[in-house]
Amino acid sequence: MITPKTLSGFKDRLPKEAMAKGAVLDKLAHVFKSFGFVPIETPHLEYAHILTQEQGEIQKEIYRFKDHGKREVALRFDQTLPLARFIAQHHSSLGLPFKRYAIGNVFRGERAQKGRYREFTQCDFDFIGSHSILCDSEIIQVIIAGLRALDLEEFSVWINHRKILNGLCQHFGLHAQEDTHTLLRVIDKLGKIGHEGVLLELNAHFPKIDFKEFLGIINTKQEEDSLEFFKRVDHLKSYNATLKEGLEELESLFALLLALDINPDHFKVDFSIARGLGYYTGMVYETTLNQLTSLGSVCSGGRYDNLSKSFSTQNLPGVGASIGLDRLLVALEELELVESKSTSARVLVVCMHPSHFVYASQVAQNFRQSEVNTELYPEIGKLKKPFSYANQKGHEFVVVLGEEEVQKESLTLKNMTTGLQVNHLSFLKALAMVKE
Amino acid sequence: MITPKTLSGFKDRLPKEAMAKGAVLDKLAHVFKSFGFVPIETPHLEYAHILTQEQGEIQKEIYRFKDHGKREVALRFDQTLPLARFIAQHHSSLGLPFKRYAIGNVFRGERAQKGRYREFTQCDFDFIGSHSILCDSEIIQVIIAGLRALDLEEFSVWINHRKILNGLCQHFGLHAQEDTHTLLRVIDKLGKIGHEGVLLELNAHFPKIDFKEFLGIINTKQEEDSLEFFKRVDHLKSYNATLKEGLEELESLFALLLALDINPDHFKVDFSIARGLGYYTGMVYETTLNQLTSLGSVCSGGRYDNLSKSFSTQNLPGVGASIGLDRLLVALEELELVESKSTSARVLVVCMHPSHFVYASQVAQNFRQSEVNTELYPEIGKLKKPFSYANQKGHEFVVVLGEEEVQKESLTLKNMTTGLQVNHLSFLKALAMVKE
């Protein structure tokens, strides 16, 4: 006997969870399509050298191995590098601008922790081939529309601009790009190690710089109305041109978003948002749920100058974001915003004798032809079993077909919620009760 | 520069193909749910020993490697062994009978051939935990309903029974289970190597047996009405009890299916259907499209006695089938049954100046709020570009917003199919034309 178990850090989704995930993905895909985003698919497996460009911790986490042809291959760890490869490979036939979404699993051999998995689902959407602020505005709109479609109401997309962070670095004497990247990576840990932790790390990296004032600015979060906020931080424009540009681009973005039918609480400025990844160059954002801030960001993204620079000389700027679906599902469950059923059928049909199989199959088919999802219980015997099955799985109605029902071409219908049972109904009357 | 390319045997799906696949999966999932099947998900990666039970060619094709924790792991090559592991692991919380569907990618390091990929999508549905013929009937119904939902009209599920094949083996002097398996694997190649090829191979394996009459029976295919067919082959029941049982079970199945509202051309008997896999014990079937028989089977399956026997002492019989989605998509494209668009948006909104960005964003949002998928072209400049973009991608309407439109809060609408352009419409009039 082999012990049936999944690998550590990997998990099965049972029907209830898989149905909840499917419902969430359907709603998100509906939103993506409403903005004209189209789906693409890339393989789970790529040449290893395609995926080993991004530096940092992630390299140790990549699943890589030699395939049957001795090629070095790797399982994708995100959907951004595959997108970069995809765009460079197909851009001539795709036509630019190009707006894609991709829902897929990625793999990271991280240390196993509660709620963190080594295979998880990402839901990415990117707008490639344009510098226009309309794209930035659209990605924010999609995030907000997507979360609203899931009945989430209290959340904010926290927006920052890399030019603001770069401008601040310049102002405080950090000029080398490498130093800025180091600083961004430390800032990115604010949520994990806190203000004091960040200060300690920064002092260790750059002992000559006093980061108190710097961190004071970084800790600026919009609490008031957008216009008032931009007034409050307007003096920063005088620090340098980079900072000024960053702030002005944020102002333009907010002007666009405020003109739309969107709750202004859903998008706010937060100067501490850094995003660790190297490729971001413009706006960056994270999204938190007000009731579950400890969960961290459920959707993060930003603008990048040139996604495919390792693959192509063509300049391909873009902006995009990624929803961490597993985390989002945890949140929706905690907020009781997911349906909790283990069956896709509303009606369970039960019969009492093999000689009723034909009639039972016909009744089930009739319900289905009337757009009522219907399951036929395959076993005969005591009624206790199918009824407890229906209770366990969540069928709304049980149809019982005994000798008398079959002879009269009728059926007995029990409403599992109210407990009401009606005997010897015609099919049409039963259908009317189910559809009521 | 890195050359952007996928691994040999792996491929990207561009939007047109990914959208067609998505539409097909939505329709199939709708059918699965109508019968009460529920989705589950298992990881792409499993302990290697879980996947290395099935014998044969497939073993050489498995992608296996050591993970970061030195565990022997493997990418799944089908969704049946993971299902067996899943059921054994979770059956107490699932409740039996259990009907699952699973749509997922599997990996096989086969020799690269045209139209064969090393990563491909399978769409499985199984009914676990019951010996009832209602389950067999249901799986056939699901296959037929699934293909009908894709607008396929001319196809047949070719059904056989392992007991018929086993009974024939007995009759012709092959008694050892091993010999029967060998014979089944050779019979399974009929489509590939033909009658003569099979005869040669069988003679090589079993030189003492005359296979002419045997192959004559194996080549029996239903062409007439079911009742007449069963009369034609009725004499085989006298060969032995196993053959008799197999034929009678097929007769019961056909009696159930013929009583339903299903075209009887969609299910027929074919004694040559063997299915190579060891775990089948009852009915087995393959599905061919009449106009594309050379494509082979698009959906195959059958009944197995005990799916999880390697993992559990509990007896878990079942019946299920698997749709090869990639092959099915090729067929649908050849039969011109897939939509051919590269955009999910019906309307493309174009504006002429950055000062119109707010108005353009509002117009696009208004269309979306009226359930019209709408894309906003992010660049300004000559109209030639967005129009050729709309032509390439397949937008039905282009909305143009110039100085005059913005001032009058109006819009200009061009129908890309008829070429008709109407200037200075109110939003409501434009919406009416789009929804017409």
UniProtKB/TrEMBL annotation, chains A, B:
Enzyme class name: ligase
Gene Ontology MF terms: ATP binding; histidine-tRNA ligase activity
Name of the molecule in the record: Histidine--tRNA ligase
Locations listed in the record: Cytoplasm
Keywords, in A-Z order: Aminoacyl-tRNA synthetase, ATP-binding, Cytoplasm, Ligase, Nucleotide-binding, Protein biosynthesis
SUPFAM superfamilies linked to this entry: Class II aaRS ABD-related, Class II aaRS and biotin synthetases
Principal location class: cytoplasm
Naturally occurring in which organism (per UniProt): Helicobacter bizzozeronii (strain CIII-1)
